[in-house]
Amino acid sequence: METDVKFWEESYINKKTGWDLGTISPPIMSIINQLNDKNLHILIPGAGNAYEAEYLFKHGFCNTYVVDVSETALNNFAKRCPDFPKKQILHQDFFELKMKFDLILEQTFFCAIPPAQRTNYAAQMASLLSSGNKLQGVLFDFPLTENGPPYGGSKEEYIRYFTPYFKINQLKKSDISHPLRANKELFIKFTRL
Ligand SMILES: C[S@@+](CC[C@H](N)C(=O)[O-])C[C@H]1O[C@@H](n2cnc3c(N)ncnc32)[C@H](O)[C@@H]1O
After folding, report:
1. I need a labelling partner for 118 at 20 to 30 A (CA). Which of 136, 156, 168, 178 fits?
2. To test ligand 1's pocket by mutation, which of 4, 5, 8, 180 has the most ligand atoms within 8 angstroms of CB?
3. Which keywords does this chain's UniProt record carry (predicted)?
4. What value does the mean pLDDT of the chain take?
5. CA of 176 to the centre of ligand 1 (A)
6. Atom of ligand 1 nearest to the CA of 117
7. Higher pLDDT among residues 47 and 143, named by residue
């Protein structure tokens, strides 16, 4: 299935970005604040304006990568954070990425892809992580509808997609979500088998 690059690009050009918090979210900040190794290779897929990458960079994490299909979103990020290494800003489709990371941070990316791609998402996440490395972040917890993005999801569904590749360390309601997402997010910590 083709990614609707035009839809995402136009959303950023026309500033129709209801998902954009304008700052790093509390759950992702909390994950980052618990990291000690500043050399970790970290990926933020579907990073958009990439406030999380900006936060990481400002806190000394030098191997953060962002990937997004929207050039406008990535340019916004590069302008805000001009010293961030350009080679770590990947303008390409997440599903075509072939690299390895120590940690991948998920936020409002899974919910952005069409549900038919969810199996591929889990497999691609698995291929980007070596055994023992982690996928962490937040996934939405509201019923799946035909219309999206965002497309909803549930704990049961996530267990189904991820257990073939990951040990589920945490999959629980987030109690530190941004107020706009309160009670709608699950905090996740999955370890690659
Ligand atoms: C709902 S937005 C979330 C952006 C960001 N994570 C945030 O919290 O603001 C989804 C993002 O995923 C990007 N995207 C969608 N499909 C993609 C794909 N297949 N590969 C890379 N990026 C993709 C879009 O361009 C958009 O920036």
Report:
1. 178
2. 8
3. Methyltransferase, Phosphoprotein, S-adenosyl-L-methionine, Transferase
4. 96
5. 22
6. 19
7. 47
